[in-house]
Structures are given as structure tokens and as C-alpha cells.
Design brief:
Elements (H helix, E strand, L loop, with lengths): L6 E7 L6 H5 L1 H8 L3 E7 L12 E2 L9 E2 L1 H12 L7 E11 L2 H8 L3 E5 L5 E2 L1 H7 L2 E4 L9 H12 L32 E2 L2 E2 L9 H19 L1 H10 L8
Parallel strand pairs: 1-2, 1-6, 4-7, 5-6, 5-8
Antiparallel strand pairs: 3-4, 9-10
Helix pairs in contact: 3-5, 4-6, 7-8
Bound molecules: 6-chloroguanine.
Length: about 240
């Protein structure tokens, strides 16, 4: 862990090189260069004790595949923080975890430090869950080969909420999910392209009508594509959709 930054993230993985691209590009690269965010990636194999640097073993009870052993995880975490108890909030990526959503992202972004543990193979020894994980997180209902892609997703989602990271862009307000609705359609020039015109209201200069149109579009889109989000939004409105 590196001191000083607004958010210090440690990642444990058997594929450290996986993170080279995502952490250097665009927003994350700039945030790290500016010292707003640190991401230190640690190779689980560095904590292996045997000659072959093995981190996995056969499952007790039989079955296919290999299981990541608890020893290297605990050794590495103790090396980083001095003890298990001194570790920061710790996310273990697993398809059986809680689904990542913006409220959880906001919660994690408010922490001073995070430890992210990536699994691979058929699974991780249950003692890693018990001893180290404060949170078990999945990024959706599909199966990945490991937690690395999920960790990259979480890092990007959390980083953009760190004060100063988003630069010019308004970091709150209008975006998808901040008020529980999907984003409204956006247009730039030209006003007509391949026979498709920008809606007249957006060119009217009438800020009130523009805001109203965007709201209607966001609500209609959410109702059509994400009935679950629409129902939750409707309940927060007191059951009334002002556009209907
Ligand atoms: Cl966190 N891990 C794996 N292996 N698969 C996933 C996932 C995580 N989230 C969705 N699918």
C-alpha cells in the first residue's frame, strides 16, 4: 500500500500483467499520475513457498480442476499490512458474490484503501473467504475465467468517483444510475446525418423543455430496457410516473 493518495488499492492476482493496459490508459492512467489514486498489483505466486511457486492444489472431496490454496493469500496479506486484522476493506471476486452496482461502488469509493483478491481455477479455498473477505462481489450473471476483469471494472468505477479524477466532466448529476434511470440520448453536430435528424427540442435553446425531454427519454428507455430499475425508480417517486 502506498500512502498519500486519496484511495490506495492493492490487487492480488496470479496474472499481474493483466492489469498493465487498463491501469495505464485514459482516466486511470491520469488519476495515478496525478497521485489521486494508487494501484499496486501483487503476484500471488510471490507468496508461494515451494520450488514450483504453486498456489493451487487438488480439491478435497474430489471433482474437476484445482483450488487456490489459502496459504499464499494469507502470507501476502500479512506481508502487506503486518497482520490480517490490519487489512483494509477486502473484496473477493467470485461469481457467487453480491452483484456490483453503483451504490456499492459509492460505498467502496469512500474507503481510504481497498484490497482486491482475484480468483482463478475452479475456486478459492473457503478459508480465504472466511479469513480475508469483507465483501464478495460478482459483476454480473455470466461466468468469467477469473476475477481480474471484474477487478478492472471495479477499479475504474471506483476511481471516477475519487475527487479530482474526472477533470472537466460533471461527476454527478445526469449520468445513468445516479438517479436510478438510464442515460438519455445525446447528439452533437451535424444536425442531420444519414437522414437522421437531431430532435428539434435540443436545438430550441429552451433549457426547460430540453430538461423535460431528457427526463422523458430516460424514463421511457429505462421502462423498456430495465423494468427492474424502472420499478425501483417508480417506487421512489411515490408510485407516480410524471410522464404518463
Ligand atoms: Cl467476480 N468472477 C468470475 N469468475 N466470474 C464472474 C464474476 C467474477 N462476476 C461475474 N462473473
Amino acid at each position: 500500500m502506498t500512502a498519500g493518495a486519496r484511495l490506495a488499492i492493492d490487487v492480488v492476482t496470479i496474472f499481474p500483467e493483466y492489469f498493465d493496459g487498463p491501469l495505464s490508459a485514459s482516466l486511470l492512467g491520469r488519476a495515478r499520475s496525478a497521485g489521486l489514486l494508487t494501484v499496486d498489483v501483487h503476484d500471488l505466486r510471490a507468496a508461494a513457498t515451494d520450488r514450483h511457486r504453486s498456489v493451487d492444489d487438488l480439491p478435497f472431496g474430489g471433482g474437476p480442476g484445482m483450488v487456490l490454496a489459502p496459504g499464499p493469500f494469507v502470507t501476502l496479506v500479512e506481508g502487506l499490512y503486518g497482520s490480517i486484522e490490519a487489512r483494509p476493506r477486502t473484496v473477493l471476486f467470485t461469481p457467487r458474490g453480491r452483484r456490483l452496482d453503483q451504490p456499492l461502488v459509492q460505498e467502496l469509493a469512500a474507503e481510504p484503501a481497498l484490497l482486491l483478491l482475484c480468483g482463478r481455477y475452479e475456486g478459492i479455498d473457503e478459508r480465504v473467504h472466511q479469513l480475508l473477505a469483507t465483501d464478495e462481489v460478482s459483476i454480473g450473471d455470466y461466468v468469467l475465467a477469473g476475477g481480474e476483469a471484474a477487478a478492472a471494472v471495479l477499479i475504474e468505477a471506483v476511481a471516477r468517483l475519487v475527487p479530482g479524477v474526472m477533470g472537466n466532466e460533471a461527476s454527478g448529476g445526469d449520468e445513468s444510475f445516479t438517479d436510478g434511470l438510464l442515460e438519455y440520448p445525446q447528439y452533437t453536430r451535424p444536425a442531420e446525418f444519414r437522414g437522421l435528424a437531431v430532435p428539434e427540442v435540443l436545438r430550441s435553446g429552451h433549457h426547460g423543455r430540453v430538461a423535460e425531454w431528457r427526463r422523458e427519454q430516460a424514463v421511457a428507455r429505462t421502462r423498456a430496457v430495465r423494468p427492474d430499475l424502472y420499478a425501483a425508480w417508480l417506487a421512489r417517486q411515490g408510485g407516480r410516473d410524471p410522464s404518463r
